[in-house]
Amino acid sequence: MKKLINVPNAVVDEMIEGYVAAYPKYVKVLPENKRSVVSVETARAGKVGVVIGGGSGHEPAFMGLIGRGFADGVPVGNVFASPPPDPILEVTRAVNGGAGVVYMYGNYAGDCMNFDMAAELAEMEDIPVQTVLVTDDAASAPLSQADRRRGIAGGFLVFKTAGAAADQGYTLDEVVRAARKANANLRTMGVALSPCAVPQTGKPSFVLGEDEMEIGLGIHGEPGIERGTLKTADEVTDALLERILEDMPITAGERVVVMVNGLGSTPHMELFVVYRRVAKRLEDLGVSIHRAFVGEYVTSLEMGGCSVSVMKLDDELIRLIDHPADTPMYVQQ
Amino acid sequence: MKKLINVPNAVVDEMIEGYVAAYPKYVKVLPENKRSVVSVETARAGKVGVVIGGGSGHEPAFMGLIGRGFADGVPVGNVFASPPPDPILEVTRAVNGGAGVVYMYGNYAGDCMNFDMAAELAEMEDIPVQTVLVTDDAASAPLSQADRRRGIAGGFLVFKTAGAAADQGYTLDEVVRAARKANANLRTMGVALSPCAVPQTGKPSFVLGEDEMEIGLGIHGEPGIERGTLKTADEVTDALLERILEDMPITAGERVVVMVNGLGSTPHMELFVVYRRVAKRLEDLGVSIHRAFVGEYVTSLEMGGCSVSVMKLDDELIRLIDHPADTPMYVQQ
């Protein structure tokens, strides 16, 4: 697959250079690790520091979401690979305003290991750290083992919830509580239509036939739960939504956020066709959509397909989801 | 190529239904044509109405850009095809707040014909209409025939300029003057790496070899000026930027806006690698980048590749480009 890059091994560093050059009013790189990207404000006194992260290749997540009402810092990993503890720790020190730091990332072994190690090092420097794992991918494990589930696009909503809570002056315990509630109220189901290729190999991450799709496929090409013939958008959407509703029943009168996330190469046109069906189905159930997110929030390079996320809301989550955000790649008034 | 759609002929209507369902606080459809999309505010008294448009398949353009500080209405055409006069006229009536209406679109024969026809009909109803053609694509005709050039991604910046001017209370003549200045100060050069497929045929719009790129290719697959072997991101960026600077010299001390626009399937990672090189080259020339736009602004479904736009600024254009915008698919504070 064609890539507009220079040297494959330099692509992440060059991306960060370009990103910081494009948005110098928002972000900067710390001195020790060129993968430590933080808000130009760094620590805000008394505010919980919000660190999100994971591998690169998911832009706008994670690096694109640094700013008021969202994240304070992002240690950037290689493509689809966790950042090592060093940049995580450097970012942690920089964004700690005395109220502690929350780590949030998708539930992947590499991220867990490296962020946990950084948390231990930070605690030794008397920086309180707590962790919220995102586990929204309903396809990746049964409900009885929900803590084994992967984190995928819905993580955006968990990060936004926590970023808003921190901006509103919540304590570390309260930020963590709100973010965990968001995660518990959230389910995502994805469908893949075509693969991506990491720059190092240039090879497709998986192979699907010309008329095939795979439901539940992970954002790094991890196996899904059902491979089949590509159906109509309405049929695919119904299949995704039914899995979500089986896993997390929603009753008439409840309020939700819906996200239809493009994985990289699926046109916005198709995302809106999918959203149309989600909206219709939820309306038929008497469920009220408080806010919609349709676009690219957590991508997998040029992967084709999308995911549908539904998050149930209470008054607190509504207030946090509605809180403004101002980042280079996501602005909400 | 795989599409997440229902019936090909219904995809535009279903996209609009999904879009309006997702953003009911911003947009609505008018009663006569289901392709007439306008701001929920419709006409604002005394403000020039801003109508942008053209075919669909370019989302976020054009439909995604309806809101304060940007467009007031968009007649939506079929994929890569101009809207007919009817929805243009219906939108025009709805957004006319008594100060007249400006039409802005890329310079394509179909759009010119249909928008001109609508303008004549509007004038018969005593609605003053003026037109600004976007002609930013430096590859599509020599400078001596600049009025024959196509409009591509840079149109976003012309629309934004006019939308801001209208929001600031400019008269119709003044909005048109500012938008034409933006267009005159703007050049775009694109490179295509892979094709898109319109839903009706599902067939690739053009064919490029596994290691080929084409510089200057249009956003509907129109021929470019140079097909060659895919080079490094820096080499490709240099080639695009050199064409722009040959066509529109920029000297040390000048201020510009830079846009690196993804055509649909090119990862943000690569767009930032390209931006990095543009920023470096302009910095070396002593040119100051006032604001950067890196992302998907004007797409061509799932086409691969990107374009680089540079717009020279004066104090007025800076004030207009910095003016806030609040639309479903583009927010600027």
Automatic annotation (TrEMBL), chains A, B:
Keywords on record: Kinase, Transferase
Q: Which domain of life is it from?
A: Bacteria
The answer to keyword Transferase applying to this record is: yes
Coiled-coil stretches are: none
Q: Which residues form the DhaK domain?
A: 7-330
GO MF terms here are: kinase activity
The record ties this protein, via Pfam families, to: Dak1
* Identification of the protein by name: Dihydroxyacetone kinase subunit DhaK
Q: What is the species listed in this Swiss-Prot or TrEMBL entry?
A: Paenibacillus baimaensis
